[in-house]
Amino acid sequence: MPSSPCSPVCPVLSRAAWARVLPFLTYIGFIVLADLLQRAGWDAAQLRWLYPLKIGLVLGLLVLFWRDYDELRAGLPSARALVAALLLGVLVWWLWIRLDAGWMVVGQSDGYDPRQDGMIAWPLAIVRLAGAALVVPVMEELFWRSFLMRWLTAEQFQTVAPAHVGVRGFVITMLLFGVEHNLWLAGIVAGAVYGLIYMRSGNLWAAIGAHAVTNGVLGVWIISTNSWSYW
């Protein structure tokens, strides 16, 4: 009797999948840890120092698995696609700070306040801004768009061209991306925009670029307006 192609000891996910999942799980794990520490009595000022550690570990995992990210070595999208993606990134920021009515928000967020004694602690602010604009977009787009959206279409996700992602993969990823954020409606809109950019351009750098612009402009706006709850 011929053996099955996968024995009981086969991993649930391939190395390529884990390379995209582990950085994201690490990031989420720190969010859970911060919540537990807050419940244990830690205040927001103490918890701020978790962010540099979180973003450092996520960056380390991205570097460790860099050779597994074939889509990031495929080159940049066309100039037209890149410009469109960057403009859409600004549009998502504009919508993000407006889709904040009570029914559009779930839970409460203290945000990230880098001030000490009423003054901005610039090392904290810069690390927070750099993490949000440079590290998080790569980590999240690798997980949400490159992996999950395609994996929901076919288990061998690397064989799925972005343009061939199914409706199920697009919709589920969009909704989950939304509920990951306390501004859930803004998150759904952002997830839809980044997903469509990826599918239309066929290039993950386009989605990363849009996401980076959104987070970067949002971070500059937060610092300039002291709107810390949006972090």
Automatic annotation (TrEMBL):
Keywords tagged on the record: Hydrolase, Membrane, Protease, Transmembrane, Transmembrane helix
A GO molecular function held by the record: endopeptidase activity
Top-level taxon of origin: Bacteria
Transmembrane segments: 17-37, 49-66, 78-97, 118-139, 170-197, 204-223
Limits of the CAAX prenyl protease 2/Lysostaphin resistance protein A-like domain: 124-216
A GO BP entry: CAAX-box protein maturation
Listed InterPro entries: Prenyl_protease-related (IPR014346), Rce1/LyrA-like_dom (IPR003675)
Pfam families xref list: Rce1-like
Protein name per UniProt: CAAX prenyl protease-related protein
